[in-house]
Design brief:
seven-stranded mixed beta sheet; Aminopeptidase; about 170 residues
Amino acid sequence: MGMSVIISPATEQDTEQILKLQYLGYQSEAELYGDWSIEPLTQTLENLREELAGRHVLVARLGDEVVGAVRGWVEEDGVGRISRLVVHPRMQRHGLGGRLLQALEELLRQDERPVHSFQLLSGHRSLGNLRLYASQGYRQTAVHPVTRRLSFVTLEKPVEAPLAAAV
């Protein structure tokens, strides 16, 4: 019998595993765009610790191993920003990215600031990521050229209104 993947808030003890996972998971993105200087590959441990202290960060654990992570926060304008969704390559294509995204959306809905929509960015050539986000209800709202080889696609999803309680 195999172990189940558990999604939970990240702790300070997860920092190094998240950074290693991020480095592993973003190799394919760096190769896709021919840019090995992308921030997920150059982020420092100290900077990641600061992010963990100031943002919502969830991890997916398989036993003691962190096999997925995602970060988010709610801006003052009510937009829930989602970033750095990463799943270990051996765990991809099993629904874990979607589970992490849904769990973070739920967490952001509970933030002290009301959230009216979610927003994230993806590279224009990251077709697997774009398919995942579309399957989760995200729609493209803008494309921003960054370099000759890279454009960021902005994707948004409205927050669903809570269902009215039956009377």
